[in-house]
Amino acid sequence: MILIDGKKLAAELREELRLEVEELKAKYNKVPGLTVILIGDMAPSQIYVRNKEKSANEVGLKSEVIKYPEEVEEKTVLEKIEELNKNESVSGILVQLPLPKHIDKQKVIETIIPSKDVDGFHPMNVGNLSSGYESSVPCTPLGCYLMIKKIEPNLSGKKAIMVGRSNLNGKPMAQLLLKENCTVTITHSKTKDLKAECLEADIIVAAVGIPELVKADWVKKDAIVIDVGINKTEKGIVGDVAFDEVSKVAKALTPVPGGVGPMTIACLLKNTIDCFKRSQN
Ligand SMILES: Nc1nc(=O)c2c([nH]1)NC[C@@H]1CN(c3ccc(C(=O)N[C@@H](CCC(=O)O)C(=O)O)cc3)C=[N+]21
């Protein structure tokens, strides 16, 4: 079994990005900038934001975090986004989710100018991705995609199954794999026989937030299994895949932690650099 080492792959990607930033700096005399907006003080959000900042610095990006208290008015956030949209030294804008209930998530996402939408959540980017045009691609599925391609460069004709249909992962992941000529199935809570569907698949991407849902007898021998889940349980953080048992049947499997998470952050940096490059043309 191949343990897909997301930590190591993310470090390799960051090194590539670091060199790219050096070249961009030499060419344009400026570096890409990422601005993260963090609302409230949820502990996990703080951790991700700190990791993002650390990685951005390592790669040589300019990074800035704007913090607001939980009670901040929606208008204040939207005006800040408008200002960042116009600011030439900002290449990418990310508003950390989830947001407090009094702030309209869709409004926030749609206020970010698509060319700086490093999350790839703006409807313009969602549409471009599904039409097969150039777009920002959401960081988590992009990271999953790069890991799958490392294991299997030719995905043409493979059966791929998304367990979970979220806008954050399942749907954009399906688009990426469709572009690679996979036959894609998207499953969800109303799917009739999830186990039978999974057993058909050469590639399983699990992102539903149910601890250890995907069992060994759901997985075809030599399937590639990507675990997007991060679930806090009594025995610590576990994914959506029963790691120990599935590792006995899968060809390749991502661990949690140390799999998809680190690649997600590296892909955010990649998206920031890509937004910068497109803005220079
Ligand atoms: N606008 C927006 N975009 C996001 O992409 C976004 C977001 N909001 N809100 C929160 C979620 C969650 N997320 C993670 C990224 C990295 C790790 C990560 O690096 N995890 C490490 C462990 C980290 C640790 O616990 O120290 C790992 O899996 O190995 C986890 C979670 C991005 N998200």
UniProtKB/TrEMBL annotation:
Encoding gene, per UniProt annotation: folD
Record's keyword annotation contains Hydrolase: yes
Catalysis performed (reactions): (6R)-5,10-methenyltetrahydrofolate + H2O = (6R)-10-formyltetrahydrofolate + H(+); (6R)-5,10-methylene-5,6,7,8-tetrahydrofolate + NADP(+) = (6R)-5,10-methenyltetrahydrofolate + NADPH
Organism: Pelagibacter ubique
Name of the molecule in the record: Bifunctional protein FolD
Protein family (similarity comment): Belongs to the tetrahydrofolate dehydrogenase/cyclohydrolase family.
The protein's role, per its UniProt record: Catalyzes the oxidation of 5,10-methylenetetrahydrofolate to 5,10-methenyltetrahydrofolate and then the hydrolysis of 5,10-methenyltetrahydrofolate to 10-formyltetrahydrofolate.
Residue intervals of the Tetrahydrofolate dehydrogenase/cyclohydrolase NAD(P)-binding domain: 138-279
EC number assigned by the record: 1.5.1.5, 3.5.4.9
Domain called Tetrahydrofolate dehydrogenase/cyclohydrolase catalytic: residue spans: 4-119
PANTHER family (UniProt xref): C-1-TETRAHYDROFOLATE SYNTHASE, CYTOPLASMIC, C-1-TETRAHYDROFOLATE SYNTHASE, CYTOPLASMIC-RELATED
Keywords for this protein: Amino-acid biosynthesis, Histidine biosynthesis, Hydrolase, Methionine biosynthesis, Multifunctional enzyme, NADP, One-carbon metabolism, Oxidoreductase, Purine biosynthesis
Pathway where this protein functions: One-carbon metabolism; tetrahydrofolate interconversion
